[in-house]
Design a protein that fits this description.
CATH architecture: Orthogonal Bundle
CATH topology: 434 Repressor (Amino-terminal Domain)
Strand content: under 5%
Structural class: mainly alpha
Number of domains: 1
Radius of gyration: 12 Å
Length: 81
């Protein structure tokens, strides 16, 4: 089995959801808002998540989804909003 270089499956979908907000949300804004929901994230961490170079914990993913107004399932590739 070929090993993937990607550390998460949600990064690209997080970026798309963030940029689809009106107005688009910055990585720094997403990090600040997610931190208020219990996720210890900064702008650099959001960037690394979106570039799929770090893993995302379940509570970070929940906080990000809440702030973006999408479901965790949609960020993981499940059903659309």
């Amino acid at each position: 089995m070929k090993k993937s270089k990607h550390k998460n499956v949600t990064g690209v979908r997080i970026r798309v959801a963030r940029l689809n907000k009106t107005p688009p949300m910055s990585q720094a804004d997403l990090a600040r808002c997610a931190s208020r929901h219990g996720a210890s994230l900064d702008q650099a961490a959001i960037s690394r998540i979106e570039h799929q170079t770090i893993t995302v914990t379940d509570y970070e993913l929940i906080a990000i989804a809440r702030r973006l107004g999408v479901t965790v399932d949609s960020l993981c590739g499940g059903k659309k909003e």
